[in-house]
Each structure stands twice: as C-alpha cells, then as structure tokens.
Amino acid sequence: MLQTIHLHLPAPLPFQSLNVHPETLVSDLPLPPTLLSNNTYLRTSTHILSPHTPISSLRHADSPNHPISINVCARLPGGKGGFGSQLRAAGGRMSTGKATNMDSCRDLSGRRLGTIKEAQRQADLLESAPALRAKLAAEEKSKLEALERKLGISTPDSFDDDAQGEGSSKRKVEDERCEQGHAAQEKEETHYYHSYRRYQREGQREALTNVA
C-alpha cells in the first residue's frame, strides 16, 4: 500500500502530492531538479528529518493512511561571523550612554531634584562662609606681615613704642575695613539666598498649580 506525501516546496514553487512506498527513504523522495540536495533539507512540523529516515516511521499512529506533510526548506548561507561580538559591543555602548542626571525629576512634593540640590548647596555655602572669611583674613594678614618684614617697615628692634603703637593702629584700621567688607559681602550673600528661596517657592507653587 502506497503512502501519500504532501510535499511543501519553497515559494514560489507549487505544492506537490506524491504516492511512495512506505519503506522509501527521505533522501529518495523525487525533488524538483532546481532544488539541490546540499542546499535544502526536509522537516516535519516538529523536527528535521534525517536523509536515512523511512517514510513508514512518519505515519500517524492513530491513522496510518493519513497523508504525511513534509516541508522542503532552503538552507541559508552563513555570514563572515562576528555579528554577536558587534551586538555585545553596541549593547555596552548603549548601557554606558544611559542618562544619570536626574535633576529634572521631581520628588513626592513636586519639587525638582535639581532645585533641592542647589538650595542645599547654597545653605552649605552660607554655613561655611564665616570659616572661609576667617581663613582669607588670616592669609591676608600673614601676607601683609611678610611684606612689612621684607620692606623693613615694622621690625621689633628698629622702632620704639610709639612706632609700634602707630603700626598696631594701622593694622587695627585695616582689620576694621576688612570686617566691614566681609559684612557687606555676607549681607549681599544673605540677600541673594533669600531671593533665591523666594524664587524657589514661587516655582513650587506654580508647579503644584499646574499639576492640580
């Protein structure tokens, strides 16, 4: 009894129906001459067929007379290789290029993270301002004393008490001027900080209004 084979060829070749002996091997199926054996392979809906597979082993257990469907698939020629390494390199470049700046994001209160960071930086700057001013004053004083010693203006053994008193009064006046300048600078920084905070609160209110 012959077995019916439904042979599905690659497009645009038409479908073929064959009647072969059950003991026929897969490699003996009559394929069109345009399909060379080394450029095609045969498979069912579940697995690839070996050339030495007999047709009888492909029969359905429940209905042996049911036609067997076999697909003729064309082999795809391989490339030069290296495509996987290119993909991995591209993936590495994409992962390193991810944005890490989250300043435009908002917290649960609707405030931007960049605004919060800037306010914290300004607060830290105001807290460290007195120590910074003291450090600058000490550096200026040491420079002034070094310059006086270099010019011989004030040496302990070359002036009497009046000269020493005059030099101390000059330094006192200079220290007062430095303190006045630092006070004006601190006042200006405080004014800038309060203005920035007022601008920040107005921006938060506007953002909350837009969200609502």
Automatic annotation (TrEMBL):
Belongs to the SDE2 family. Residues 78-167 form the SDE2-like domain. It is found in: Cytoplasm; Nucleus. InterPro entries: RNA_Proc_DNA_Dmg_Regulator, SDE2-like_dom. Residues 153-193 are annotated as: Disordered. Pfam families: SDE2. GO terms for cellular component: cytoplasm; nucleus. Keywords: Cell cycle, Cytoplasm, mRNA processing, mRNA splicing, Nucleus. The keyword Cell cycle applies. Residues 168-192 have a biased composition (Basic and acidic residues). This is SDE2-like domain-containing protein. One of its GO terms (biological process) is RNA splicing.
